[in-house]
């Protein structure tokens, strides 16, 4: 028998509940055994909460090893970013939750996969050995999304911690749409229609409603046409007078590589052979920097870090 927690979205902080259930455990790490254990775990939970919609997070598109985080021009696997952070010593697992929510918010398609569910399992998670699990993070994400306060809760890590501790969150208000103004052509048509005396019925052309005239971008046919001389003077010259501005050749898409290179050069002294400091591993020496990945040799061995992400977040400091 095994005992594991099932996490369910909640309307109040910390925005999840955890219910431990017992079930028969099948040994082995194959996908078949994982699915078998997940089914047994979910069956035990549904016996207590028959109306719940349960998802095994490790078998879903929202598994932690499939989500990514973007930092400037770099895109990193979420678990890589988490492992490179001193917050790895995170006894409550809240920093993992924060990174998971941030990555999931940036992936609307994946987030949509979670929408039908309100409870989440992670058969590989043992609370006696780990402090974090994607199942709990998914429950928090679902709760905050349904309450309409996700953006406010994850604007930064401090805001997220405050939300979990009960800080009030207000749903983002929808901007009020401004009242629609009548097109100038319509106003002009209405004014001229009111001032113009009615013509004899036998000479009056077929009337076109003012609204239809405005929609077509022309004046009502009830107004006499302009003299031909006026047309000759104005025809075709106005468009030449106000040409459309040409698009600049320096588009963001073309300058992106240069911006990425500039970002990589913003860490003075971070070159091969330089000494650096890490909160957990102590002093080390930069051995290699290739394709946004930096290898540092510490007393306990080589460690790899995303570059320049590790310096930008303060995980590494040039000595």
Shape: globular
Number of strands: 11
Separation of termini? Answer: 52 Å
**How many strands, what sense, and barrel or not for the largest sheet?**
5 strands, antiparallel
Category from helices, strands and their pairing:
alpha+beta
Rounded radius of gyration (Å):
32 Å
Mean pLDDT: 76
Order of helices and strands: EEHEEEHHHEHHHHHHHHEEEEHE
**Physical arrangement of strands within the biggest beta sheet:** 10-9-8-7-11
- Count helical runs: 13
Low-confidence regions: 204-227, 229-264
Helical content (DSSP H or I, runs of 4+): 25-40%
Strand content: 15-25%
Q: Care to describe what's here?
A:
Mean pLDDT is 76; it is low at 204-227 and 229-264. It is globular and about 60 Å long. Among the domains are: 2-164, no CATH class; 267-318, Thrombin, subunit H, CATH 2.40.10. With 319 residues, the chain is an alpha+beta fold. It has a 5-stranded antiparallel beta sheet with strand order 10-9-8-7-11. Strands 2-1-6-3 form a 4-stranded mixed beta sheet. Strands 4-5 form a two-stranded antiparallel ribbon. The chain has 13 helices and 11 strands. Helix 3 crosses helix 5 (134-147).
Summarize the structure.
This protein has 319 residues and is α+β, with helices and mostly antiparallel strands.
Characteristic key phrases:
319 residues, alpha+beta, Thrombin, subunit H, 5-stranded antiparallel sheet, 4-stranded mixed sheet, 18% strand
């Amino acid at each position: 028998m095994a005992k594991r927690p099932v996490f369910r979205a909640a309307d109040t902080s910390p925005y999840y509940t955890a219910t431990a259930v017992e079930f028969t455990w099948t040994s082995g790490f194959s996908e078949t055994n994982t699915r078998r254990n997940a089914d047994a775990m979910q069956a035990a939970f549904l016996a207590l909460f028959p109306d719940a919609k349960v998802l095994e997070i490790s078998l879903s598109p929202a598994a932690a090893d499939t989500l990514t985080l973007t930092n400037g021009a770099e895109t990193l696997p979420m678990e890589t970013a988490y492992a490179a952070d001193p917050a790895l010593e995170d006894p409550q697992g809240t920093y993992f939750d924060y990174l998971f929510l941030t990555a999931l918010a940036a992936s609307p398609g994946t987030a949509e996969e979670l929408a039908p569910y309100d409870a989440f399992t992670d058969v590989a998670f043992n609370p006696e050995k780990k402090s974090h699990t994607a199942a709990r993070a998914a429950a928090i994400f679902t709760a905050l999304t349904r309450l309409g306060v996700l953006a406010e809760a994850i604007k930064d890590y401090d805001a997220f911690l405050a939300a979990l501790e009960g800080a009030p969150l207000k749903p983002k208000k929808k901007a009020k749409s401004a009242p629609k103004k009548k097109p100038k052509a319509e106003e002009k048509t209405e004014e001229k229609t009111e001032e113009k005396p009615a013509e004899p019925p036998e000479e009056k052309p077929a009337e076109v409603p003012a609204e239809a005239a405005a929609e077509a971008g022309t004046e009502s046919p009830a107004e006499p046409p302009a003299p031909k001389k006026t047309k000759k003077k104005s025809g075709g010259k106005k468009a030449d007078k106000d040409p459309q501005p040409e698009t600049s050749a320096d588009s963001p898409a073309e300058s992106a590589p240069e911006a990425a290179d500039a970002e990589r050069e913003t860490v003075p002294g971070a070159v091969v052979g330089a000494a650096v400091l890490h909160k957990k591993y102590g002093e080390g020496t930069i051995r290699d920097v290739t394709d946004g990945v930096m290898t540092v040799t510490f007393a306990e061995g080589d460690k790899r870090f995303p570059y320049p992400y590790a310096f930008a977040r303060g995980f590494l400091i040039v000595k």
